[in-house]
Specification:
single chain; mainly alpha; 64% helix; 0% strand
């Protein structure tokens, strides 16, 4: 079988996806998304405690829990290397390394998805159901935007860090 018969899709992957500049740009984009995510949330948290906030509603610890879950999920997902997901039991010490890596990766994505769902639940229960006007509703919207951007930055960073390059050497002892 030739390489073209082994492919899943009809079109091949563009060559610019394998460059180190693309990988570096992806890492910077992921960092920017993460920064913007936390900027939205910190902005809402500081605005809720300022004198310009015209309501009695403030961002409390329950609003921080989804962002903490998303940030922990990002750490877990990006600590897994892509080559360990398909590892055989002979390539690493110990048995079922691939199964353990897949489980940890699933738990990381579950933390991020739980953070995003938690931020939507907090926005709905704390801001939409009591029908607060938009300056106060922004606290919940900023929480959802922050968790969505953290999740997106984690996916971009994981893909960019695990891109295969033709010029990368894998040295194993």
């Amino acid at each position: 079988m030739s390489m073209s018969e082994n492919r899943l899709f009809r079109f091949s992957k563009p060559q610019w996806l394998n460059s180190t500049n693309t990988r570096t740009a992806g890492v910077y984009i992921a960092g920017g998304l993460f920064s913007f995510g936390f900027f939205f949330f910190i902005d809402a948290a500081t605005y809720s405690k300022s004198a310009k906030n015209g309501s009695d509603v403030h961002i409390m610890f329950v609003d921080w829990i989804p962002s903490i879950c998303s940030a922990l999920g990002m750490l877990v997902v990006n600590s897994i290397e892509k080559n360990k997901l398909s590892a055989d039991s002979f390539s690493y010490s110990g048995n079922s390394v691939a199964w353990k890596a897949r489980l940890v990766l699933f738990l990381g994505f579950a933390l991020m998805a739980g953070g995003l769902a938690g931020s939507m639940a907090v926005m709905t229960m704390k801001y939409i159901v009591p029908q607060y006007p938009f300056p106060t509703l922004y606290f919940g919207v900023a929480n959802v935007i922050a968790n969505g951007l953290i999740m997106l930055s984690s996916i971009v960073l994981w893909i960019c860090q695990n891109m295969e390059d033709d010029y990368t050497y894998n040295l194993a002892l």
